[in-house]
Design goal:
By secondary structure, the protein is an alpha/beta fold. It folds into two domains: 268 residues, Rossmann fold; 81 residues, formyl-coa transferase, domain 3, CATH 3.30.1540.10. The chain contains 17 helices and 13 strands. A six-stranded parallel sheet has the order 5-2-1-6-7-8, sandwiched between helices. The chain has a three-stranded antiparallel sheet with strand order 9-10-11, covered by helices on one side. Strands 3-4 form a two-stranded antiparallel sheet. Helix 1 packs across helix 6 and helix 6 packs across helix 7. Pfam families: CoA_transf_3. Keywords: Transferase. It comes from Eoetvoesiella caeni. This is Crotonobetainyl-CoA:carnitine CoA-transferase CaiB-like acyl-CoA transferase.
């Protein structure tokens, strides 16, 4: 079957995570993603290890980090700070549908690779810039990284135990969630721009900022402030608006109890042999449970410790309330549901042998995602892509001699 984005060409000038996460999504959807990397060095994350993945050539290895967001792409080494390299990139732009970059604001303008310049060469080009703080505003020139934006965007103020609890204080999330969300927003914006182009024939510029994404992703916590005037606080893994919705210690481990409505709470109480709690005037609906959070949680801590993790999970399945184990990553990939959904895939690679990757969560009935290309070796496709531009062996040799590739 034809892939959803078959025929779409993407130039990926981004590095690290947010941009590559977006372009990997586009590659999963069938786009031809050409990853433009610095000769001899490549994407910074190739060296962000250990752990490393050893290539079939003993002299080659790349960090596992790189493999999380670069499958399905072709790697071209190209130094566009050299005029010969810039000329090659311009030729790639002529044939491209999308360009994604995450250089500092104005960083590509000095090379004539900004949107205003390139849109004159290719008016249909969709040009997506990803930065820490956006193209405007007093912070525009600042570099931005995920952890910094988690802090500045409020996420760390609501993550972690409260200051009054031992070990309390601000914490970042255990994965670069702002980068990942930014990549997803960038993907959505690019797809919308591609659809708009089918109607207008025109490309456009997309400005995506990590800080904007983080503020938008505060979701209900932001609404609690802008509509209710309440400044959210850190409360550990509990929920500010739902009770009980937090981890509990069991006889042999921990579970996450996530009661979303009064029906589920009643079902839990029946299963836990404490049916009277559902009728207690303090706990009979969620608003009251939030009001009397401490009293209810104290009761449940004692009750939950009477059974094992497996016993509580089985009771949840039998009685229809949400409860699950707090899995380590190895247990995640051993989970029968994760295995049934085939979230771990083996992808062949000439450069690395067969590598195991995490599958895309997108599932299509008509244009399924295929896993044919592992993340590329640095410069693995340079000669093939240059040949597609019509460059012969002599021209390629000249580029090498000039250190443009």
């Amino acid at each position: 079957m034809a892939a959803a984005l078959q025929g779409v060409t993407v130039l990926d000038l981004s590095r690290i995570l947010a941009g590559p996460w977006s372009t990997q999504n586009l590659a999963d959807l069938g786009a031809d993603v050409i990853k433009v990397e610095r000769p001899g060095q490549g994407d910074d994350t190739r060296s962000w290890g250990p752990p490393f993945v050893q290539g079939t050539d003993p002299s080659t290895k790349d960090a596992a980090y790189f493999f999380c967001c670069n499958r399905g792409k072709r790697s071209v080494t190209l130094d566009f700070t050299i005029e010969q390299g810039r000329e090659v990139l311009i030729e790639l732009v002529r044939k491209a549908d999308v360009l994604v970059e995450n250089y500092k604001v104005g960083g590509l303008k000095k090379y004539g690779l900004d949107y205003d310049t390139l849109s004159k060469i290719n008016p249909k080009l969709i040009y997506c810039s990803i930065t820490g703080f956006g193209q405007t505003g007093p912070y525009a020139a600042r570099p931005g990284y995920d952890a910094l934006v988690q802090a500045m965007g409020g996420l760390m103020s609501i993550t972690g135990e409260s200051d009054s609890t031992p070990g309390g204080g601000p914490q970042k999330v255990g994965v670069a969630v702002v980068d990942v969300l930014t990549g997803l927003y960038a993907t959505s914006a690019i797809l919308a721009a591609l659809y708009h182009r089918t109607q207008s024939g025109q490309g456009q510029y997309i400005d995506i900022a990590l800080l904007d994404v983080q503020v938008a992703a505060l979701a209900n916590q932001a609404s609690n402030y802008v509509l209710g005037g309440q400044v959210p606080q850190r409360i550990g893994s509990a929920h500010p608006s739902i009770v009980p919705y937090q981890p509990f210690a069991c006889a042999d481990g921990h579970v996450m109890l996530a009661i979303g409505n009064d029906t589920q709470f009643a079902a839990f109480c029946r299963a836990a042999d404490c049916e009277g709690l559902a009728q207690d005037e303090r706990f009979r609906n969620n608003a009251l449970r939030v009001q009397h959070r401490e009293a209810l949680v104290d009761i449940l801590h004692e009750r939950m410790g009477l059974k094992t993790v497996d016993q509580w999970c089985q009771l949840a399945t039998d009685n229809g309330f949400p409860c699950g184990p707090i899995n380590t990553i190895d247990r995640v990939f051993a989970d029968p549901q994760v295995q049934a959904r085939e979230l771990r895939v083996s992808v062949p690679s000439e450069g690395y042998g067969t590598v195991d990757l995490v599958a895309s969560p997108m599932r299509f009935s008509g244009t399924p995602i295929s896993y044919d290309m592992a993340p590329p070796l640095l410069g693995e496709h340079t000669e093939a892509v240059l040949a597609e531009l019509g460059l012969d062996e002599k021209a390629v040799a000249n580029l090498r001699s000039a250190k443009a590739i």
